[in-house]
Each structure stands twice: as structure tokens, then as C-alpha cells.
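Model: You mentioned two targets. I'll fold them one after the other.
Researcher: Yes, keep them separate.
Model: Target one:
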Amino acid sequence: MLRLNKPKADIEAAFDFLVVAALLAFACVWAWQQFMKSPPYVDPVRYPVRGIDVSAHNGMMNLDAAARSGIEFIFIKASEGATFRDENFRINFIKARHAGLKTGAYHFFRFDVDGVSQAVNFLQTVGHRKLELGLAIDVEKHGNPPGVPPDSIALRLTQMVDYLNLMGHRVTFYTNRDGYFDYLAKTFPGSSLWICAFSKTPINAEWTFWQYDHHGKVPGIKGDVDLNVFCGDRDEWSNYLAGSLWPYESRP
């Protein structure tokens, strides 16, 4: 009898294991949907000015449709490192201007590349285009090589910022919480901050823009797009735009 019941017991144990594994998998998916994919609630009364950020990865877009849906500003990827230039920067800029969006450009900062050469690449890509939101530098571990000494990162980033400031450009830093405290808090206190965070309270520091969702849906854009808000009301938005200091006239 014992030999006859053993296969049955093994089957029941395997079935129980599969049930538990399925429940765990479901719990993981649910948690990811709730806490990772689901964006925090962003009060439209407190933060009425909405925007997006895009790159070539977003494909061809109808930014006129995005503007009609309530989008008011856009950050466009321009460059990365010392040589890379986003292939859609020029067309995205033209579309943004046509749609009446307030526009900024961003550069992905490479930890292992000289800061001055990155600044030169960024400026050459942007050219003489007028950008009401200025230049943003994307500073984050993701996408960068590991093992670069923190002192080297700080030196290269300082070199890049100093060069851009010398040329008369306002700089905003894009990063997440870890990036802010690892690379910016001590070296660039008080700088304009564009924070990526998926909690109701973005960060315990002053910020200018908040990227709160990587999976936004906006008319005119296929697939997911990053959603952002400006930290302030309409009057503060107008004051922010009035403080833009740019030496160049708009040119496609």
C-alpha cells in the first residue's frame, strides 16, 4: 500500500508546489503593476503645467496633437557622450516649435568621457536653437559603465557644467534620488533639478521638474512616453520662462 500511495503523494506535492509558485508569480506581477508601473497621483491643481520628454526611441510623433491634449513643454534628447547625436533631435525640435511647446534639450552624461568634449558635442548638436527650458544633463548610473571613480565623475561633470555656464547656458540636472545624493547634492547645491521619482513626494529637496511616469499615454505619440510636471502654478511658470537667458535666436 505504501508503494501504491507514494506516486499519488508525489503528484499532490508537485501540484501544491505549482499552486504556490503561481500565487507568488501573481503577487510579483500585482506588486510591479501597483508600485512600479502605476504612476503616483499628481494633483493637476497644484501642478497644472504638464510636459513630456522624448528621444528617437519614441519614433515619429504628432506634437500638435500632444499640445492640443494639454502638453505644454518638452525636453528633447540631443546628444550623449562626446560623439553621439540623437537622429531625431532636429525634426523633434521643429515639431515642438510648430506645436507651440516650450522646449528644452537634454544630454546623457557619460561617466567615462571628458566633460569638455561632452559639452562641445551638446552645444554643437543644439546649435543656435532657442530653448526656453535651457539645457538639461541626464546624470544616472543606469546606462553608464561600472567602476568609474566618484572623483572622476565629479570632475568631468564639473568641467561640462563650467563650460556650458561659460557659454551662457542655464543648466538643469535630470536624475533620480540616488543620482541626486551621489553626484549632485554636494557639488551642485541649489541647481535646477529635474527629478525622476515614482512616489507622491518626489524628493526632500527643491526641484523644478518632476518625471513621474515612464508609461504615459499622450495623443500623437505611439506607445509609452515619459510624463512630467513643472513645480509651480501658472504665475510661477511665467516667471520661470521670463528668467530664461539665451544668447541665440530661434532657428530650425
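Model: Target two:
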Amino acid sequence: MIEVERKFCLDPKGLEQIKKNGEFIDKKTISDVYYDDVQFSLTTKNIWLRKRNNRFELKVGMTQKRERLDVYQEILTEEEILTHLNLGKGPLESLLKNKKIIPFCEMKTTREKYKIRKFIIDIDEAHIEDFIYRLAEIELLVDTKEQVEQAKEEILLFSQSLGIHANKVEPGKLIAFLAHKRKEHYKALLEAGVISSV
């Protein structure tokens, strides 16, 4: 499965449009722990390993650089994560410790999820240490790489129909946190070309 997503800030009008036209799906608290080594070997390749609510997930950027519209391959089983990261066989957590791949960020996010037609909209408020960040995300899931460009177009047209314009794209909560609180890691991502300046 390939996830095509666009992050943006929501003004009150956009939020009202989503709540008025969207089907409310749920509200939940998400606990994320992100992992890398001290050289930032994963994230500088646009590879994001996290444990979400005690289950490991791997998001692999399908382009080297994070863009206004991010495209990721999602890897959701431990066996596939082990294979992709070339860690060998065994319990994932133990192998990560052996390779000195350790937590570098823990966050709690309150997420409201809505659906409008085939689009999923997440409205997040993240708490990372003393840093609070709010943003929204429109996403579409597609099956093949050939469908990605079409999905990007559809997301842009859909966001415009809600009155959300391209100049309101926001960095993700983790990137915003690194920019404010983990400058060395943020700088490494800039130098690797994974992100543009926030």
C-alpha cells in the first residue's frame, strides 16, 4: 500500500468545512516513539521507523526528499521491517538495540479522523516534551506507483475545494519538533536533502 499525503494548517473556515461535510470516524490518542542511530542513518535516507501504540511501523519515502505531497511505502509487519532494514532474524527490538538504533523522539497525539468521499482527513494536536503542534493531513491510499501522480492531483483539487491552498502546507509534527528542539538532527536532514527549510 502506498500513502500519498499532504500536510497543512487549518484556519477556522477549513476546519468548519471538514466538520460540516465530513463523516466523523473517530478520536483517539496515539503514542509514537521514533528510532534512529546517532548518525541519523535512517532518517537521512527518508526512512522513518516508529513504534505506534506498541507496534512497529516503517515508512519509506518513495522520493529522497520530503515534498509538499509526501509519498511513502508503508511496511507494517516486523518480518518485512527486518528484511527492509537488513537486520537479520530475531526479535526486532533486540536487533535494534544491537545495532544502536534507539528512540530519539516520543510524542502523544490527539487525532480526530474524518472522511469525505475517498479522502481521509486527520486533525492532529501533538505534544512532544514541552512542544505543542497542530496540523491537518489529507491522505489517499493507492495500490501502485502508477497511481501516485493521479492521487497527488486529486488531493490538491480536493484541498482547494475546502479553501486550503498550497501556500498553507506545513511541515509534519516531527520535522517541526526537530527544527525547534533537535537542531543537529534537523541540520543533518537538510544537508541530506530529505527536507527543505521550515
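Researcher: Noted. Anything on target two?
Model: The first helix runs from residue 12 to 21.
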